[in-house]
Each structure stands twice: as structure tokens, then as C-alpha cells.
């Protein structure tokens, strides 16, 4: 099936740290907006699809792939060393 093909194709091979460093766009997060801790806000918070923690964490940089999905920089670096595709949309992360 299509999902098996995605996981088994050449794009699933991991990338070197050097290649990741050259291609990954980094957005520096210095501070986060104050968010009320009510149910609605908790449901609306953006999370990193790799670790499932809140994206907005002070001093935690964001790594942005070519498909425009973003993750914690450290999380997506670890992912890309194993698989060269976006965890969310499965498009090739970097050529």
C-alpha cells in the first residue's frame, strides 16, 4: 500500500548531521505569549508532533522543514537522522 511505500522508499534513509545543519531553517524562540490555563487554550496549543510537548517553550528553537511544518529543533534533528521525511505530511524533508 501507499504508506508502506512511503516508509520503504529511499527518502526514509536518515540524513547526516552536516546535511541537516545546512538545510534545516531555525526559528529562535526567546519568549512565549502568556496563555490562560483553561481547557480551550490547552486544546488550541500547538504541539511538536515528534515529542508531543507544547511548541512554545522558552529557549527552545523551532526547526522548519521545506513543507513548512515546524517542530522543536532538537526533536526534528533526531527524527531526520533516522528518516528523511516530515512526520506529519510524509513529504521528503530535504533533497
From TrEMBL:
Keyword Ion transport: no
Enzyme Commission numbers on file: 2.3.2.27
Keywords assigned: Metal-binding, Transferase, Ubl conjugation pathway, Zinc, Zinc-finger
GO-annotated molecular function: ubiquitin protein ligase activity; zinc ion binding
Catalytic activity: S-ubiquitinyl-[E2 ubiquitin-conjugating enzyme]-L-cysteine + [acceptor protein]-L-lysine = [E2 ubiquitin-conjugating enzyme]-L-cysteine + N(6)-ubiquitinyl-[acceptor protein]-L-lysine
UniProt xrefs under InterPro entries: MBR1/2-like, Znf_RING, Znf_RING/FYVE/PHD
Domain RING-type span(s) in chain numbering: 48-90
Listed name of the protein: RING-type E3 ubiquitin transferase
Amino acid at each position: 500500500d501507499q504508506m508502506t511505500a512511503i516508509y520503504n522508499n529511499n527518502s526514509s534513509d536518515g540524513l547526516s548531521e552536516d546535511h541537516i545543519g545546512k538545510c534545516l531553517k531555525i526559528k529562535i524562540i526567546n519568549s512565549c505569549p502568556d496563555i490562560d490555563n483553561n481547557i480551550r487554550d490547552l486544546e488550541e496549543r500547538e504541539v511538536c508532533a515528534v515529542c508531543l510537548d507544547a511548541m512554545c517553550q522558552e529557549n527552545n528553537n523551532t526547526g522548519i522543514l521545506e513543507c513548512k511544518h515546524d517542530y522543536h529543533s532538537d526533536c526534528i534533528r533526531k527524527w531526520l537522522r533516522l528518516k528523511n521525511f516530515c512526520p506529519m505530511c510524509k513529504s521528503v524533508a530535504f533533497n
